[in-house]
Amino acid sequence: MSKSNKVGIIGLGYVGAPLAYLAAITGYTVIGIDNNEEAIENMNRKINAPNELHDKLDKVELIASNDYSLLRDTDIIIICVPTPTINNKPDTSILKNVISGISKFIKRGCLIIVESTVAPGMTREYVEQYLLKKEKLIINKDYYLAYCPERIDPGNKKFWVGNINRVCGASSDYALNKACEFYQSMIKARVIPMESIEEAELVKVWENSMRNVSIAQANLLAMMCDKYHFSVEQVLEGLNSKVEQFGLTLAYPGIGPGGHCIPEDIHYLINTSEKDIDINMNLLKEAVKINEEMPRYAYDKIKSIIQKSGEKVEKMKFLMLGISYKPNSADIRKSQALVLYNLIKNDNQKIDLYDPIAKYDIKDISSKKIFEKKISEADIIIVGCAHDIFLQLDYTHYKNVKYILDCWNKLDESKIEKAGIHYIGVGK
């Protein structure tokens, strides 16, 4: 593919921004579009580039704006906007608004690539059908269409947008070749062509649904271990003896998956499959139910242990450490730690929160001075997110602490118990 091609990327968040920088550094002229002024400013100042590209930003052709008309000369338009769920129902309103926004500025022969997560059939429904109805644009004549679902794992030090395998489906052989060639020109990984757009859509929602189910299995195992008074870590070590030889993949228990993909994509699959192809999705529904109940399970567990010790939960002071959905990340989307925090707070318990990394609007959430005061007063510590800073703390130093709820089983249980602090894990 010619590097003289102009590329428009809509959505400059954790998916679109790294892709925009990668395309620009590869040699493409890139126009980034977003309605968030901070995202636009960050890109124009080149201050949000991936660490892997910081030393290559000198001569890139890259601008960011909120003006869709700048896309009228682009050869490729890539859509990287969120497709969240509301009450476990797909919300495609942002995607629809983008298609409406670009509809009058599509250059003849332009390749439109959707990276946003959707269920099988949605790319054609929201792009092909809309453009035909509203602008009389005919697919594979006036423009081409492809689907290449985003794959990115924020915070992963090994895999980033430049070296993760991708899958791609398209509206024609020409469009498929063009899309695969584009991605292959940028990334050092495989680009796997699919037979259709719908196959690529299914790959995306299924890979995250598989992960959701495997996490649910791990959480169900943890609950069983609690009932049997087993250590889930010991059981997992036994399971790993087969993993080592047969290459299986294990998930580990916690208070449930968070973020933009695993807890949301499964609902695209459930809703669409039940509506369009009449498939029983109870397996996936039960996985969702197990994972969504884990914050309540963890809270009920610590309350039960405290009550059995003869103490009263309502007289305890809680301190939660971390509400991001994953360690060392500021992202709190679909965070189960935040669900747990609100459960405790809504139960009229005295709870404070400290997370110097997360982006969340709670007063004093990142004040170290206040944290040091609160941890010296707390009866119960909850490690809601296993940020490195929390794993490095010596909790045995605080003689006031009576209980620690480790939501991800990351702390040194033996050391904590020897100090007279009651350690509570998930499945431990």
Keywords:
3 domains, elongated, eight-stranded mixed β-sheet, Rossmann fold, alpha/beta, 40% helix, 428 residues
Please characterize this protein's 3D structure.
The protein is of the alpha/beta class and 428 residues long. The chain has 3 domains: 190 residues, Rossmann fold (3-Layer(aba) Sandwich); 87 residues, N-(1-d-carboxylethyl)-l-norvaline Dehydrogenase, domain 2; 131 residues, 3-Layer(aba) Sandwich (Rossmann fold), CATH 3.40.50.720. The chain contains 14 helices and 15 strands. The chain has an 8-stranded mixed beta sheet, sandwiched between helices. Strand 11, helix 11 and strand 12 form a beta-alpha-beta unit. Helix 3 runs parallel beside helix 4 and helix 6 packs across helix 9. It is elongated and about 75 Å long. The mean pLDDT is 93.
Q: Summed up, what is this model?
A:
With 428 residues, the protein is of the alpha/beta class. The chain has helices at 16-26, 37-44, 93-102, 122-135, 173-184, 197-228, 232-246, 262-277, 282-292, 294-308, 336-346, 368-375, 388-391, 413-418; strands at residues 6-10, 29-33, 62-65, 76-79, 85-86, 89-90, 110-114, 143-147, 166-170, 191-193, 317-321, 350-354, 380-383, 403-406, 422-424.
